[in-house]
Structure formats: structure tokens, C-alpha cells
Fold:
Amino acid sequence: MDASGRSPDPRRAGARILDTAEGVLIALRSCTLHQAFAEIVKTAKAHNVSTLSLADALVALAQNQASQHGDDAAFVAARAAWGHLFDPSRSGRGGRLDNDAAPGA
Structure:
């Protein structure tokens, strides 16, 4: 419930998750908002998971919350698509940026 005692709108919660996931990709890939959205949708379709569950899994990866998702299909897809962006052995901003990866790749 929010401060006014209402239950949060699940559509807004989904939009917020998607917005956050797009921001993660924009920061890590230096891509546009449109490219980030298209990459999330394309990856979700390729792995046969919902766009929102994949976006949520990407945010979890960014927050280093892998243990909370385990072998969830969306998390497995997110790790396969973007896990290398969070590899601490990579150079860049705290090991999180892969300059060789093209947006949408």
C-alpha cells in the first residue's frame, strides 16, 4: 500500500520495472532508449519469457540479487544476454561496462 492507503497499480509497477531495465541498458551499453526497449523485447521473445519478467531479472542482475532468482527462466535469459556486462573482471566502470558490445547485440 502507498502512503494514502491504496494498493499500488500493478500496471505502474510493471512500467517502472521496464523503465529501470531500460536505464540499466542505457548506462551499460550507451544506447538509446528505443534501442534498450527493442533489445529487451527481442531478448524476451528469443527466450520465450515475458518482457516484464525479463526486465525484472535484468534489474535483479544490476542489483546483484542473483541468489533470489535462482534458475528462473527470465533470470537465466537475462544472465545469458547481459551477464557479461556485470563481470567484475571486465574493464570499465567498476567492471560493469563492456565497450566492445554493440547495442542490440
